[in-house]
Hints:
By secondary structure, the chain is an alpha/beta fold. Helix content is about 45%, strand content about 10%. An 8-stranded parallel beta barrel has the order 1-2-4-5-6-7-8-9, surrounded by 6 helices. It has a two-stranded antiparallel ribbon with strand order 10-11.
Amino acid sequence: MPKLCGEAFWRETLRSAHYVVAPMVDQSELAWRLLSRRHGAQLCYTPMLHAQVFLRDANYRRENLYGEACPEDRPLIVQFCANDPEVFVQAALLAQDYCDAIDLNLGCPQMIAKRGHYGAFLQEEWDLLQKMILLANEKLSVPITCKIRVFPEIDKTVKYAQMLEKAGCQLLTVHGRTKEQKGPLAGVASWEHIQAVRKAVNIPVFANGNIQCLSDVEECIRKTGVHGVMSAEGNLHNPALFEGRNPLVWEMAEEYLEIVQKYPCPLSYVRAHLFKLWHHTLQVYQQLREELAKVKTLEGIVDVNRELKLRCQEEIANQKEGEKPKEGLPFFHWICQPYIRPGPKERCKENGASGTEKLVRGKRALEEEEGGNSELLSKNKQKKKLRNPNKSFDPSLKPKYAKCDQCGNPKGNKCVFNMCRGCCKKRAFKETADCPGHGLLFKTKYEKSLSWQSSQRVIQNPELSQQGDVDVGETAVLKEAGDS
Length: 484
């Protein structure tokens, strides 16, 4: 039976899905997908999987896809990051029997994607992408889909989408941000770009970006004409988003933890989900935030969740009539609701900086007074400062190191060659020399080797022991002569 394409694929295989849970690294695992499906999600993606690792590592395949069968977890699309056509297709062939489509990640903007040369950092390499999708479309028994980010120019974005469609992509998810728009610089996603792509291609299009509640989903579909809407951050903070509800946080947390008992996943995934669900409450109960960060078992996480629930119920019982949510939240902190990520200006205002001072300074920057000078310190540096109040992070006060004679890196203080360890090792090996400062003993080991060879020669030829004072070098020569 030929595989379905385009609109037919979306209607029949994906069951005309409108509400989609995004692929999220370590966050769209089976337990979370099942929770989301119970509360309105019609289609889910796996976390982004690394094609090369998936191909070579059986444990990776088992942990991420080949685990316990779950018929409720369909329709399902498996997403891979890859930059080699053969590797991508071979990994997809191993996954195709466990899903309804294979997605190529062309949208990840993170530094790890830049270092690995995948995700959004392939969006200029159209020849490579064509080869990957053409080969996948030819070899796979399930459709190939793509998730992309936009270019600043609408025209270029449209041509990009049309190229992917022509190569064989059967469904396109468009995140309306560029690869530079991430973290505190994310800004607002451009639905205008998404609308232009939807009008220019003949395959189904999903929209991604600016989705915090069900009304956003409906507005996005109305304005862009897309077939469905994908949510990531909004879903993590409120898994009932697609139901149009804002439930109590502990209801969602308890239900998720029950699913995890049946379909286990790494503890780090569970902890990260609870940090998202309880985000606003953990700003109030900082001590429990610390406990959640340190807990080592699932039972411990359940206990922290129970304590958070009790704290919130006590707060509700003591609530005064007419009291309103604090911190500008639309609901009280114990209710699932969006988290609006502050932009750089808002962060600087939170940190006490003026609108013109260091607007783009780090995501977690906080202001600290030290020696009368204002300095922005990360949270890690602040923790170090608490442990050692006299510690300074001023680069000008760092100790100056003598440089290696060979490469310019800091040299070892006791190195006999005045070099760093790497250069010292090369020279000591070449010259059969020792450097006690770096613990390199090539000469000593060589002499021990000659001594051992000498002793072996004497054992094999006892008459040599009668020759008197035969030095190590002469013994070695005798051995070599005897061997010849």
